[in-house]
Amino acid sequence: MRYANYMSEVSGIAVAADRRQLAAELRAVCMRVSRRTRFAKEALVPPHQASVLGKLTDNVLTPRELADIECVSAPSMTRTVGCLVDKGLVRREADPSDGRQVRLFITDEGRTTIARVRAQRDEWMLERLSALSEQECAVLEQAQEILGRVVAA
Q: Where does the record place the HTH marR-type domain (predicted)?
């Protein structure tokens, strides 16, 4: 672990370089883990559709709100939502206060699908964790808590 040098260096320049290296390595490994869990060969729905289902699990949103949350264009989100509607995973409903707006709701089948997607992803991670020692799992638990704070900041 290159970051261990951080503790022994006194120079601010060396410290900054070590932190920059840690930042790059953490970003890269987090991206690899995300990709590996999201792009499984046996995925029930593509990752972008799973992400939308996840957002709709506890929220009623408009296509525009979803596009903003997902950082995609409105036309792209319209296509994604259309696919989910065609599969019966999402339903559209006119906004009662503004008939021009469409609200999106996850269906029961959509809830089942996102639960299965999440279970597949968790299973992938559990398989990898089962190969680790208790000490390594404890370190990962601490890292998870710290990364959670970093992301929330």
A: 19-152
